[in-house]
Each structure stands twice: as C-alpha cells, then as structure tokens.
Amino acid sequence: MKKSLCALFVFCLLLFCAAAHGEGKLRALLVGCDRFLSYDVTEPVARLNVERIGLLLQSDSRIFDLIVTADSGVGGVAELSRLTRETFSGAEEGDISLIYICTHGQMDRVTGQPSLILSDGQTEEELRPAQLRLMTDGIKGTCVILLDACNGGAFIGKGLKEGGQNFFHGDNYKVLTSASAGEDSLLWNDLTGSAGGSYFASELCAGLADRTFDIDMDGQVTLTEASRGLLESHGASTVQCYPQEDDFVLYQYEP
User: How far apart are CA 242 and CA 186, in angstroms?
Assistant: First the structure.
C-alpha cells in the first residue's frame, strides 16, 4: 500500500512540474509579405526575416513540432485565416502557438485604425486587429504574436496619444511589436536583392541566439527580458509588448 501511494505521489508530482513549466507542443506560422500592389516592394526583406526567425525557432531547446512558412506573402485575410487554422488545429491547453508577421503596417488617417497589409503580389487586403483576434481566439494554450511592421504597437494600444484599445487583452496572449503606433519600423536591403532584413528581426534573433537578452543567465529568455533587451539594442523604433511585465518564456536554450 505504501509503495502504491508513493508511486501515485511521484506521478502527480511529475504532472505538476510539467504543468508548472508549461511543457507542451510548440507550433509556429511565419508570414512575410514583400510584393505589394499599393505599397513599396520590400523584397527580399520579409522573406529573409522569415528565414531568420525560422532558424531561431529551430534552435529553441523545447523543439517546435511544426513550423509553417509563407515567405512569398499571403493574398488576404481569408488565406491567413486558413493557414492559421491548419497550423494550429491540434493546439491544446499547455501548447504554444507563435505567429510572426512581417509586412507594411499603416494607420487610417480618417478612423485612426491600424492595419497590416497582406499581399502576395497578385492580391492585397488590409488585416484589422479585430480580424487577427478573431482568427486566433479559438487557439488553445498560449498564443504568441510577433508583429514586424510599422505602427504595430497600435494592435495592443501602445503609442497612441489618446490611448487605444488592446485587441489582445487576455491571459493567453503574448505580443511583441517592432514599433509603437505612429512609428515606422525600419528595414534595409541591398541593390542586388540578395540581402536585407528588418532591424527588429535582426536584433531579436541576435539577442536570443547569443544569449545577450538572458539577464539572469538561467537558460530562459522571458518576454520581459526580450522586450528590455530590444529597447536597449534596437533604436530604430520603440519595441512594445503585452503584458508589460511577464515571465512567459519566449526562448529557451541549454545553459
């Protein structure tokens, strides 16, 4: 009887530890739009950013079960919604679902509403915050959103003079943006079209990969650590995050 109770105690302890550390499956959808109908072409910036982020995720010691890339862009909201459903359909509580989007971002001069520009060079459509929230609402577990675009902070109400709505308020959302509302998110490319990237993606990948952002050197970079690190190393625009102070592990490595 004592052995059975002991075994049960150990089993429950293991379950508790797994839950406490948020162990679960990791999946990612990486979207990069370079070719537009109404905006400047940024090729190959977004495509190379998707490649950089993908390589970074592959080095995470927790191991991603699935990484889907759309480095030639997506033509509109319906296509992004389909990719989101397909990528994260198996998500359960305790899982982590990460979405990275690199594209143009803009603020409507009349309504003051932000949007991301989705395009594959053939079709083009605006993605509003409420639409992105709607397509991610059904994802179980934690949803991490990385927005690499001008005015991205407006999606979480950051950088607006009169205050703004955080469309991703909730315990299951973790958001990191490359710029505040009203700010450009700078990028670069060379004349040959063979090199380029955004300063945000470059600094994020460098700070995580070389462990600079891991302030306490415990092998885990939290959302707060990454945000603080980017605010120090990324001067091109003001990185914003939600929640403002959060110990969610954005990246993990073997120390």
Answer: 21
